[in-house]
Amino acid sequence: MAxxxxxxxxxxxxxxxxxxxxxxxxxxxxxxxxxxxxxLVTNTGGAVIGALLVTxxxxxxxxxxxxxxxx
Length: 71
What we know:
There is one protein chain. The chain is built from 2 helices and no strands. Helix 1 packs antiparallel against helix 2 (37-69). The protein is an all-alpha fold. The chain has helices spanning 8-29, 37-69.
């Protein structure tokens, strides 16, 4: 909802970049933690699923407003 004019694939790439930065930070600075490619994949998937859910919810709300306005 923070980026309403972005496409789902753009938000997925943003999720990938943010997750990649976090994993890189863990690799470089947190020696008791480890970076994981699986975390990168699941976080990116979560960003895409979240973007899809918000898109569907907004479309449903807009459709509800349109029918409530009436003739």
